Amino acid sequence: MSDTKKTNYRWVVVSLLFFATTINYLDRQVIGFLKPTLEKEFNWTEEDYGHIVMAFQAAYAIGLLGFGGVIDKLGTKLGYTISLIVWSLAAMLHALVKSTLGFGAARAALGIGESGNFPAAIKVVAEWFPKKERALATGIFNSGANIGAVAAPVMVPWILGIYGWQMAFLITGAIGFIWLIFWWLFYEVPSRHKQINKAEFKYIHSDINDEPEAAQTPVKWVQLFAIRQTWAFVIGKFLTDPIWWFFLFWLPSYFASTFNLNLSKPSLPLVIVYTATTIGSIGGGYLSSWFIKRGMPIFKARKTAMFLFALCVLPIFGARYATNIWQAVALISLAAAAHQAWSANIFTTASDMFPKRAVSSVVGIGGMAGSVGGIIFPLLVGWILETYKVAGHITAGYNIIFSICACAYLLAWLVMHLLTPRMKVVTL
Prior knowledge:
There is one protein chain. Helix 6 (131-163) runs antiparallel to helix 7. This protein has a single domain (10-209, 218-419), classed as MFS general substrate transporter like domains (Growth Hormone, Chain: A). The longest helix is centred in the last third of the chain and has 35 residues, at 356-390. The protein starts with 9 loop residues before the first helix and ends in a 9-residue tail after the last helix. By secondary structure, it is mainly α. It has helices spanning 10-42, 46-74, 76-93, 100-114, 117-128, 131-163, 165-186, 198-204, 221-224, 228-259, 268-293, 298-313, 325-353, 356-390, 394-419.
């Protein structure tokens, strides 16, 4: 293999991350499309469903805190493998439970397993890409979340109609083991990978003061709490992640209750919403990378892009005035796409500000904060919807929730800017 012309194996690595993230979101979203069926099967109220979502979020938060450190210690290949095995088995376990408590336990196990996906994937991107390409790479693999969300409204109702709700969990859960084969066949860190040449290896490590993985030693995550950059990432995730959880777990129910969407059939409105998020994820990663190529400093490029995306969420406030489903679809699609564009960049700020040996830990801490927000928000959403449902005005409940969504990103951007006005690189 020639060492003069750079190989591009890093994009093969991104494709592996993309498919893992697709499976991750497919598995977590199955329950949202089975909600009407399971409500009848187990006599769930909106608050029961909120508690089940909370069980996932709580376990996800705990798992993120632990998995980030595990991946920094064990490495991305083994750490990702453990995560995927746990979450795939937990996804299949849903088919065997017979009670609401059982669903809560299965969701908790799923949350712990799935918590390893993003700390591992962001660390892989930091290992395989220079900073100027990381947002685009993150946007590409993060778009897998949206593809999983697009696949769910088509795949899950089809399986439900033919085989029943148990098989929906079994089939989607088993897909992860297919991915695992390709992961072990095609992935290794750059210094040990036989498919890249010296030119690509040099390009990957072209950033000033960048650490090759051989020089890394894990950092104790406790010391990261004393750093302002950690708190900027943590608060940004805490304020915005819950909005995405709402889009994932409650949008099917919103369209069903407000516009009488039949969730037992493939749902075009939901496919459109989650397809838009794919465009947002890749486009969001591309925009900040484009700013950098045009000469803008890395941190300024990230902040400028994130501010623009925060503005794009504001129009969701108008969903309360939507008189038909397609108006609501347009407004929610814009907000959901903006979230994924925001997500591609906020994840990349972690690898921008911290050395590679701490990236998984920082992402895990920030992800935990996002999940804590995701625990609180479903409780609030469940209480608001149940209150207005009893009063016969469930649409008004969604109006309040959309107003919260509209403001969250600008607030997060402002807090992050105040904490890290210059977003300096951390030296450990």
